[in-house]
Amino acid sequence: MSRFFKKTEPDEIVKKLVVKTVMERSLICDGDRILIAVSGGKDSSVLAWALSAVRPALKISYDLSALHISTDFCACCKKSVLCGRLAEWEIPFNDLFVPVTGRLKEGRKMNCYWCSTQRRTELLKYAVENGFNKIALGHHLDDIIETFFMNLCSCGTISAMPILLKYRKYPVSLIRPLALLEEKQIIACAARQNILKAACTCPYGQNSKRGDFRRRIADFTGASPDSGEIKRRILNALGEGRIDYLTEK
Amino acid sequence: MSRFFKKTEPDEIVKKLVVKTVMERSLICDGDRILIAVSGGKDSSVLAWALSAVRPALKISYDLSALHISTDFCACCKKSVLCGRLAEWEIPFNDLFVPVTGRLKEGRKMNCYWCSTQRRTELLKYAVENGFNKIALGHHLDDIIETFFMNLCSCGTISAMPILLKYRKYPVSLIRPLALLEEKQIIACAARQNILKAACTCPYGQNSKRGDFRRRIADFTGASPDSGEIKRRILNALGEGRIDYLTEK
Hints:
Two copies of one chain form a homodimer. Chain A is α/β, with parallel strands linked by helices. Chain A has one domain: Rossmann fold, CATH 3.40.50.620. Chain A has helices spanning 10-24, 42-53, 55-58, 79-88, 112-129, 141-155, 183-192, 208-222, 227-240, and strands at 33-37, 63-71, 93-98, 134-136, 164-166, 173-175. Chain A has a six-stranded mixed beta sheet with strand order 3-2-1-4-6-5, with helices on both faces. In chain A, helix 1 crosses helix 7 (183-192) and helix 2 (42-53) packs across helix 7 (183-192). The model of chain A is unreliable at 241-249 (pLDDT under 50).
């Protein structure tokens, strides 16, 4: 079959959109030391694979390293599988233990916000102490759109997840190279790269509020023949930061 | 029955929310000469009634006048009924004929955008020539939210309808005093004030794209026990114009 008739492979789509995001948003510069936060899930695993795979296309010289944060409640992590895959992609791996549940004050219950704050703080600390100037996170287009709608409807603010966030207090930036990718594109890539087998999921499961929004957004954008197009349009709107025609002028 | 147990009447809700919008957004000042754009529909009729009814509560001195723009395609307008109701509310009424269809270039079809642009231009011209410094429009919360979502999903911009719009080129401002009201609240008020009987609708019917968005937004916000609360939260978000946590920082 001619290559012109071949459907683009899922891993090629991921590589293409990661290169596009990195170039358009200037996410990576020559000499960057990038720490990839790997949870063991499909998103951050695909991120690690992609950042390694796009090196030839980007023609930028950068170092990659991965950090997994272990907690006192995650028992299912297939760390050795993850570790093996990262070695294949020539990404050094480190593991940091954070007793998230152990740090809870008496009477307080575990929740996603508390856990992510604890892990983010330790991640930042580790990056600064070990000379990394970029932290790469595996959030994708659906995560960003969900956060946007949750903030809009629950908090009454127009805010989302930055694709590039420069911290004022620390010599570190957050980057989200998967920002243009829909979750289904990441899943397809993970399946093809045999990554899904190494993925673990949080035992506390899906945050029910986020899950509820996910379903409602799918209904909202799903009426279009290309829901991905709508999502990318929303992302562009967020990037523009135009406030000209809001409710006051 | 004690008044404390009585459910708030629909016209009281409209008055309360119009006063709130006018006060919070400083829509009306002492000495304002306000031209109300009345299409003959329920929204602008309720707007005219409300701006007349809230005078005692606002304690501001302002003039009201109404302008209806007649077109060469609207045959159903019950102008005499509308005229009678405006007289009851002590609002002088004028009618302006704009040949919207007649102005179409050959081969061009009628559409909502063309019609509204023609009418808006004539409205502005009339206001300036006749010494009005404010133009009041009957757009409500659902109109604003729909416009926001249509712009977000179709154009990729974060923009909506301003509640207060100061024109740079003209000595006139647009105000939308019904911005906090849901359409269902306006319909309930119109029914109680016997306004519905005087309302006419555009023979070209609902814009199908807007109608589609209306249904999808109802599904999206309807999952909440109070969808009005979500809509008002979105309106607040638009008013804040915060661009801190968008996709770039």
